[in-house]
Amino acid sequence: MTSDLKADVDAVQQIDGVPKILDSVGRITGMGFVAIARVTTTHWVCCAVRDNINFGLTEGGELRVETTICSEIREHGEVVVINDVQTDGAYCNHPTPAQYGFRSYISAPIKLANGTIWGTLCAIDPEPRDLNRPEVINTFELFGELIAAQLEISTRFEKSQSALSVSEASLRTSEHGRLSAEQSLRASQADLIDERKTAELREQFIGVLGHDLRNPLASVEAGLRILTKNLDNGRAPAIITEIQKPVLRMAGLVDNIMDFARGRLGGGLTIKRDAQQPLAPVLEQVVNEIRLVWPAREIDTVIEIEEPVRCDRGKLGQLFSNLLGNAITYGDAARPILVTARTAGVEFTLSVTNYGTPISERAMQNLFQPYTRGDRPSQQGLGLGLYIASEIARAHDGTLDAVSTPEKTIFTFKMPLQR
Question: What's 301's domain CATH number?
Answer without folding.
Answer: 3.30.565.10
